[in-house]
Amino acid sequence: MNLPNMNDAKKRTKQNVKILYDDYNTSNLENIGKDKQYLILTYGCQMNVHDSEYISGIMEDIGYTKTDDMDNADVIIVNTCAIRENAHNKAEGMLGRIKHLKEEKDNIIVIFCGCMAQEEGLVNKINKYKWIDIICGTHNYHKIPEYLSEYMNKGKVCEVYSIEGNVIENLPVVRDSKYTAWVNIQYGCDKFCTYCIVPYTRGKQRSRKSEDIIDEVRELYNNGYQEVTLLGQNVNAYGKDFDNDYDFADLLGEVASTGIPRIRFVTSHPWDFTDKMIEVISKCDNIMPYIHLPIQSGSDRILKLMGRKYTIKEYLEIIEKLRKNIPNVSITTDIIVGFPGETNEDFEKTLDIVNRVKYDLAYTFIFSPREGTPAAKMKDDTSMEEKKARLARLNELINKYALESNQKMKDKVYEVLIIGPSDKDNKYMGYTPNMKLVNVNCDETMLGKIVPVKITEVKTWSLDGEIASGE
Ligand code: SAH
Ligand code: SF4
Ligand code: F3S
User: Please, which residues have CB within 8 angstroms of residue 320's CB and are 6 or more apart in sequence?
Assistant: First the structure.
């Protein structure tokens, strides 16, 4: 048994990251899942979604097949998120359901993994739940085959590493889409924003070697993928952990030269945003004009308390350069309301910034204290009622600008990559270069293709369109 430890998880040393090309091995366990099925439930950000694709790769490598039906599953994997209290609540709600199922069918194996499994207080609690069979953290998915075998032979396994972390390069992967793919470029985070749990749950920032990233993108392109999204908590801090000065702009340029039609990246941090990046984005047609640039607050005082290390002035300078150099760029953001000590005046400053930047979309959250982070100990006098009222005002403004930016697209033609059936009547959905979701009146022969689409209707969250061929 190896339990998480928040103090160890916080440590950062100069010690070099190991890039491991043979750490994953199934050592005679290739068939332990023969004739059995696994189900995977994923909460949280794209990083977790992509981790689940690796976990699927591992499960299928040892003989399991995937099911979406909980009643048929022999193994249920819950890949959790710890970012806010409601992420916890969702996972805990699901655990309740699984507990009932396990009472009826005790041969199901339940694996609890992901960011919640890196939290000390939480694991101390759920480790006592008899019906959770395997607990593993974000650093050791590659050992799931071993844990399954250990569980089958000896019973409950709990292994979580609170380490800075390495990079494991030889994991099998089963991707959710045949057309768009996530590509990790870096793991972990060293920013330690005072509210955030991620640096504790994911370890230190470690960049993958550019050769490995480029090889992966080339292989995806050769296999018909049309779009890659480069993934990391701070993609533009890529390479800061290298001994040389190769940086994210260099990587973007190299990825663009593979010729893959579409390249995106999330998430950028204003702190590491360089002019060189903007130059590369504006030069390469296959880097999509879409930037997600979390601001978090419009008040310099709050940004300082958050440990974000940029000012509103600096943030606005980046926005100005983006708008000037990248035609039709979409800009989206993340905003936290009700950070400890946020006054009405601070909050008004956030609204001011939204009025200035006119975001295409924003993800907005009420501050959620995370155990072990500095902000959780800060004095917080604002009532939840007041925080909810602020969030509602903010959302109203965000929605107004989201609709306005969509309205500008009406009757115009955009290239849309069609990626799957839409939940709307027989339509297919896809994305414009600037990341607007379009429900397109077309048939399945368009799947995986980039087609010209005329926008016929606009709403706050999506657009409707028709194929514009021949126009
Ligand atoms: N690495 C990214 C974001 C990661 S988490 C970045 O730095 O921008 C995604 C978003 O969740 C954050 O941008 C922030 O807005 C929000 N978030 C993180 N911790 C939070 C907390 N404790 N309470 C509320 N929102 C939080
Ligand atoms: Fe969290 Fe800040 Fe790191 Fe983003 S940059 S993951 S908000 S600590
Ligand atoms: Fe959640 Fe972990 Fe992502 S805490 S937001 S799943 S990095």
Answer: none
**pLDDT single digits (tens) 8-66:** 999 999 888 999 999 999 988 999 999 999 999 999 999 999 999 999 999 999 999 99
Indicate whether 91 pLDDT > 60. yes
**Cα gap 29→26, rounded to integer Å:** 5
Mutational pocket test of ligand 2: of 81, 193, 295, 309, the residue with most ligand atoms within 8 Å of the beta carbon: 193
Give the C-alpha separation, 320 to 357, whole Å. Answer: 9
How far, in Å, is the centroid of ligand 3 from the Cα of 133? 22
SS3 98: helix
- For residue 205, the ligand closest to its alpha carbon is 2
**Are the C-beta atoms of 397 and 440 separated by less than 8 Å?**
no
Going by CA atoms, what residue is nearest to atom 1 of ligand 3?
81
Nearest atom (ligand 3) to Cα of 46: 3
Alpha helices in 165-274 (DSSP H): 198-202, 210-222, 248-256
